[in-house]
Input
Amino acid sequence: MRTLRHLFAAVLTASFGLVTTNVFAAPKDYRFELVGQPMMAGKSTHVTVRLVHIPDGKPVSDAEITEVKFDMGPAGMAGMSAPAKPMMSAKDPGTYMIETQPSMAGNWGLTLAAKVKGEAEPVRGSVVVAVPK
Ligand SMILES: [Cu+2]
Output
């Protein structure tokens, strides 16, 4: 089932192209980036993000996603949210998967916090996910 979903996501990526919008994280040495174009409205799906250490541009593996929030704040509907939970680390280094089910098309904000080795404070950031109809 998981494999099928990923295949589906890959097909969607090919169909819609990459839509990537990044917002800077704090602490300022890290950012989350959206990987690919994940989903359709109304379906349970995975959103993949990459955590990058900005000074050297390297992906950060072994981080632990501790908080996830998914809502339509970027579309002016901050009160509309969808359940979101972190899955196991994705296949590529420094990438993490979040399972969610957006209820409608439009711009959703995925807000994350992660525990990173060697950092006292959690790393926080967000990405905008454009959910197609
Ligand atoms: Cu909405």
